[in-house]
Amino acid sequence: MGNKKPAVFCPQAHGSSVVTVLLLIGLLTAMISGCSSAGVKGQQALLPPELKEDQPIINYKAPEDLPANYRSYDFKVIAGEQEIDLYNAGLNSWNEPISYGYFDMPGRSKMAITPDFPFESFEIIPRSLGIEGEREGNTIRFELNRQVPVTLVLNGDYQGKVLHLFAQKPEEDIPDKNDPNVIFFEPGFYDLGDYGEPPLMLQSGQTLYISGGAVVRGRVRADQASNITIRGRGILLNDYHSNDEYDDIALTLGFVTDSVVRDIIVNRDASSWTAAMHGSSNIEVTNYKAVSPRFASSDGFNINSSHDIVFDGSFVHSADDAVAIKGLSHEEPKDALPVYNITYKNAQLWADANNAIGIGAETVAPYFRTITFSNIDILHNYDDRDHPDVLPDRSAINIFALHGTEISEITFENIRVEKAKRLINIQMRDTFYFGALQGNWAWPGQISGITYRNIESYSDGSNEIKLEGWSKDRLISNVRFENIRVNGEKLKKDDPLFTVNDYAKNIEVK
Asked: Which BP terms in the Gene Ontology apply to this protein (predicted)?
């Protein structure tokens, strides 16, 4: 990671055969290349292994009976020799349609993308992949040799028509559709709900499987459950508001333990959260994709009052926090559930409003502790469509404490920011979004032991770094900035990018 290179032990022959030495060196080289990294000078990305051989993709066709408004015709995508069906995720904050598609990729593949409209320039992001591409007429061609999401941005317009493609590992261990504990959706379109319809409820020990080529329109929920699995290559689609006693979220885990969410795509085309967990523990979320560009409040997957959570390999395009870790409770912080042991890694995040990475704003918990965000590409972060540059509490990487609590042992490392208004924010305040949320700093609290390591911003935004404590006994302290680079320049202690008030102490820059 960073600029460090793996240490290599080179054995001396001392009479051994040259062949043996060469074999050992070859083995060491293979071991090192197994953890591949790529990127520009400064911060490197840990990437999946590079695929060396061409192989046909595994394609999942859209359901024949899928309503036309859920399809996208803004782009034509060919992977190898197969056309990828594309979906319309809905309009973004600036009323432009967002498109996405998916396929499994056992080997490298030649890609051809043809927008159905004229354009001047293109970018394939994240830049950590090192994909440049070539243009032939209106077609963009490139080779994809890793199982990763890629995004096409045209004319440098991150607020315009954008295409997301999800190239994935081939699926393994598909559950038995005849198992009584498996809810199995085969390829096709399933309309499970509308205004007033309850969610699909999962019980302990059950598996929900959405096949590639399936689109399930509805909501999914588990309450007081354990050992559940939600998985599959298909799409959970929700584009309506509910009218029942349950929350208005596409995927909800309430007080769930020892469970797994993996591989699915959730497309929430309405102004409310895409997915959330509350009071949950021992949850693994792997290769999760959320494409929810509708303004606003379409948070990607929020982690509320939970502990021992691992997210690995997420992609989120939202119009609010891509990920937010919150303390939500009607109790006082000392009596509420704590938030701890959370790892969020190997992700690509795009947030058209609020923050890409957020802790808060609601912080009703006795403490937030041992939380790590690592190896993340922040593709885009904008503060607010309706109030640009008015809300100073928003940033690409954010801690915003609305209620008195202890926030400590938080690490942000190996993060690359493509485009954002502000870079980093740590704040204590008692009001949020023009008073829409009210806080309470009469309760005791502090923010300390925060580390930012190997952060690289290429953004043309302000790149402001703000630290704003509350009072002399409710401080921000012991914040460490290590190897932070903004457009190639290393951050300095007296850098003009800093905005720091009197209640932020012991700030270290290395």
From this structure: polysaccharide catabolic process
- Clarify whether residues 474 and 335 are in a common domain: yes
Task: State how far the Cα of 394 lies from the Cα of 267, in Å rounded to an integer.
Answer: 24
Q: What tokens appear for 335 in the block?
A: 């009596």
Residue tagged 């409209």 (tokens):
117
Which token pair is 97? 């349609």
Q: Is residue 32 part of a domain?
A: no
CATH of residue 409's domain is 2.160.20.10
Mean pLDDT, the chain, as a whole number?
A: 92
State percent of the chain over pLDDT 70. Answer: 91
Instruction: Determine the straight-line distance between the first and last CA of the chain, rounded to whole angstroms.
Output: 17
Residue 352, domain member (yes or no): yes
At 264-307, the pLDDT tens digits run 999 999 999 999 999 999 999 999 999 999 999 999 999 999 99
Residue 248 domain-assigned?
no
% helix, strand, coil for the chain, step of 5 = 5, 50, 45
Alpha-helical regions (H) of 85-164: none
Average pLDDT over residues 445-467: 98
**Which residue range(s) make up the domain with 359?**
271-509
The enclosing H or E element of 31 equals helix 18-33
DSSP secondary structure of 398-429: EEEE-B--EEEEEEEEEEEESSBS--EEEEE-
pLDDT score of 24 more than 90: no
| 264 assigned to some structural domain | no
In 193-240, at which residue ranges do the beta strands (DSSP E only) sit?
Answer: 200-202, 207-210, 214-217, 220-223, 229-231, 235-238
Residues in the chain, total: 510
> pTM of the full predicted structure?
0.91
In tens, the pLDDT along 77-90 reads 999 999 999 999 99
Write out the H or E segment, with its range, that includes residue 167: strand 162-168
Query: Are both 283 and 137 inside the same structural domain?
Result: no
Tokens of residue 19, six digits: 């062949």
Supply the pLDDT for residue 23.
Answer: 36
Count other Cβ atoms within 10 Å, centred on residue 325.
27
Confidence category of residue 38, pLDDT binned at 50, 70, 90: low
Instruction: Please tell me the total count of domains within the chain.
Output: 2
Provide the residue type at 420 as one letter.
A
